[in-house]
From TrEMBL:
This protein's name: Stress-response A/B barrel domain-containing protein
One Pfam assignment: Dabb
Domain of life: Bacteria
Domain Stress-response A/B barrel positions: 2-95
């Protein structure tokens, strides 16, 4: 099993509406990409977040399934339309267990 976790830090000019649209679009991938076994996109409440305010947590059966997700047109579209325009920094962590 693969755990894919992504932390998002946003540009100062990013609006709440843009961030909410990104969260909704990422969460909606659950119904569009078969390789996703679980996905949660939530607000980070930790005071140690260093500016990373949204976290995506997802599970995949294998590294190949994660790779298929990353190039899937629905994922690429969300990244292009919702993430890149407002993200200042992104940190991704992938682990196998």
């Amino acid at each position: 099993m693969i755990n894919h976790t992504v932390l998002f830090k946003f540009k100062e000019e990013a609006t709440a509406a843009q961030i909410n649209a990104m969260v909704d679009a990422l969460q909606a991938l659950d119904n569009k990409i078969d390789e996703i076994k679980e996905i949660q996109v939530k607000e980070n409440f930790s005071e140690r977040a260093k500016g990373f305010t949204i976290m995506l947590y997802s599970k995949f059966e294998s590294k190949e399934a994660l790779e298929a997700y990353q190039v899937h047109p629905a994922h690429v579209s969300v990244v292009t339309e919702h993430v890149k325009p407002i993200a200042e920094d992104i940190m991704a962590i992938d682990i196998e267990y």
